[in-house]
């Protein structure tokens, strides 16, 4: 029986370390992209139209005892705006630097009201390609989610190491 159970701790440790490595690589790449997006300089623009869009979707049932999906409503913003560029006036549609939708309608309505307030519109434009732009830069919430993912990956690798250390090597 020793041979049957001995590889289980090693497999669990290997899987936990692999998942941790994948989370670290994905987090690093997304953080690098967010830093690049945050470095785009703002330029004054004109808001042509903006609206809140509600889309019905479904998520897996949280209690996982049933195969049905739980219906949810995802909210996002759609906009059109203009801004000057060296190639002439450009039109953009990206509201967020990183595409975002939320089940929190109030959060999206706050973004909507902020953009519709009539104040100066800051359009963040890619210095290397003026056809790429967005209105709302990556937020601290984005960084919070990455820290949480890294913490979970670290806990998973620690759990894998503990299983590997303390799992019985034999049942005799």
Notes on the protein architecture:
The chain is of the alpha+beta class and 172 residues long. It has 4 helices and 5 strands. It has helices at 2-5, 7-38, 105-116, 140-166, and strands spanning 42-60, 69-83, 90-92, 121-125, 133-134. It has a 5-stranded antiparallel sheet with strand order 3-2-1-4-5. Helix 2 (7-38) packs antiparallel against helix 4. It starts with a helix and ends in a 6-residue tail after the last helix.
Brief account:
The chain is an alpha+beta fold. It has helices at residues 2-5, 7-38, 105-116, 140-166, and strands at 42-60, 69-83, 90-92, 121-125, 133-134.
- Mean of the pLDDT scores? 80
Unreliable stretches: 1-5
Task: Decide which structural class fits the backbone.
Answer: alpha+beta
Beta-strand content bin: 25-35%
The value of Rg in angstroms is 23 Å
Given the structure, what is the number of helices?
Answer: 4
Order of helices and strands: HHEEEHEEH
Q: How far apart are the termini?
A: 8 Å
- Which of globular, elongated, flat, extended, rod-shaped describes the shape? elongated
Which sheet architecture does the biggest sheet show? 5 strands, antiparallel
**SS elements, strand count:** 5
Order of adjacent strands in the largest pleated sheet = 3-2-1-4-5
Helix content: 40-55%
